[in-house]
Design a protein that fits this description.
Helices cover about 50% and strands about 10% of the residues. The protein contains five helices and two strands. The longest helix has 20 residues.
């Protein structure tokens, strides 16, 4: 399960809703093992450009739309970048490709591993 928290989120009384607060609540109230990860320009490496900021907004919108449109039968997805468009990819297919890359690498099939990673990796 994934919980997404917007930067600057506040409750009805104006108190900040932080990822650490949610992490503590989920651990304490639900008994789940939790981890908090704060993503941002550090993940991409370097100072964010205008493209980075627009990309974050587009991908965030796509992630929220995926959540709003989801039903209990909707397969899990990953929001990704294709060209300059935010797109949804099936999570399990992405996981399988990652496993296939690992297998290709361990078997020394480096050309196959590069192809599995996609054009942007070549």
């Amino acid at each position: 399960n994934i919980i997404i928290v917007a930067e600057g989120a506040i409750d009805r009384s104006g108190k900040p809703i932080t990822c650490d607060l949610i992490k503590q609540l989920v651990s304490k109230k639900l008994g789940f093992d939790t981890r908090a990860t704060v993503l941002g320009h550090v993940q991409r490496g370097g100072t964010p450009s205008a493209f980075d900021r627009i990309l974050a907004s587009r991908m965030g919108v796509e992630a929220v739309m995926a959540l709003l449109e989801a039903t209990p039968d909707t397969p899990a997805c990953v929001v990704s970048l294709s060209g300059n468009m935010a797109v949804r990819l099936p999570l399990m297919e992405c996981v399988q490709v990652t496993k296939d890359v690992t297998t290709a690498m361990s078997e020394g099939r480096y050309d196959d591993a590069v192809k599995l990673r996609g054009k942007s990796f070549e």
